[in-house]
Specification:
Radius of gyration: 20 Å
Shape: elongated
Low-confidence stretches: 67-76, 138-142
Strand order of the largest sheet: 1-5-4
Region (Disordered): 70-89
Organism: Rhododendron griersonianum
Pfam families: ArgoN (PF16486)
Largest sheet: 3 strands, antiparallel
Protein name: Protein argonaute N-terminal domain-containing protein
Distance between the termini: 22 Å
Helix content: 25-40%
Number of helices: 4
Mean pLDDT: 75
Domain Protein argonaute N-terminal: 12-124
Length: 142
C-alpha cells in the first residue's frame, strides 16, 4: 500500500499524475533501499513487486520540481544569441512529498495459476490488476 503526503501532512490531489511522478522519483532515488526491485503502481494505493521489499514499511522523502518552459515567441530568428536563453527550462515551485510504502498482502502463486485457468479466488481481482500493471508500458523499469 502506498500513501503520499505533502511535507505538511496533507495528501496531494490526484491531478496531473503526481503519484506516478513521485513514485518514479522514489524508484530512481532509492533503488538501493528498494533492493533493486522494479515495481508497478496503479495510481491509487497499490504497488506490485515481484518478491518482497526489504522491510514491511518503508518511508521516503522526495522533492519534485515543476518545470516551466520559458519560451518567448518574439521576432528573433532561430540561432540568434538569445535563442538558448529563451528556451531555457527553469525549475520553480518545488514540492516535498513523504512516501510511505507498507506491506499489504502477498498474492499466492496458486491464485495466479487459478486466475490463468479462469477460476475465481479471493485474490482474483488483485491478480488481474497486478498482471495488467505488469504488462503496461508505464511500469517503472531500468
Amino acid at each position: 500500500m502506498v500513501a503520499l503526503f505533502y511535507e505538511d501532512g496533507f495528501p496531494p490531489s490526484r491531478r496531473k499524475g503526481i503519484g506516478r511522478k513521485v513514485l518514479d522519483r522514489v524508484h530512481l532515488t532509492y533503488d538501493t533501499e528498494l533492493a533493486g526491485k522494479d515495481f508497478a503502481y496503479d495510481v491509487e494505493k497499490s504497488l506490485f513487486t515481484l518478491g518482497p521489499l526489504p522491510r514491511n514499511k518503508l518511508e521516503f522523502t522526495i522533492v519534485l520540481e515543476d518545470v516551466v518552459s520559458n519560451r518567448n515567441n518574439g521576432n528573433r530568428s532561430p540561432g540568434s544569441p538569445n535563442d538558448d536563453w529563451k528556451r531555457q527550462r527553469r525549475p520553480y515551485n518545488s514540492k516535498t512529498f513523504k512516501v510511505e510504502i507498507s506491506f499489504a498482502a502477498k498474492i499466492p502463486m496458486q491464485s495466479i495459476a487459478n486466475a490463468l485457468r479462469c477460476q475465481e479466488s479471493e485474490n482474483s481481482w488483485h491478480v488481474c490488476k497486478g498482471c495488467l500493471l505488469a504488462c503496461s508500458p508505464v511500469i517503472f523499469s531500468r
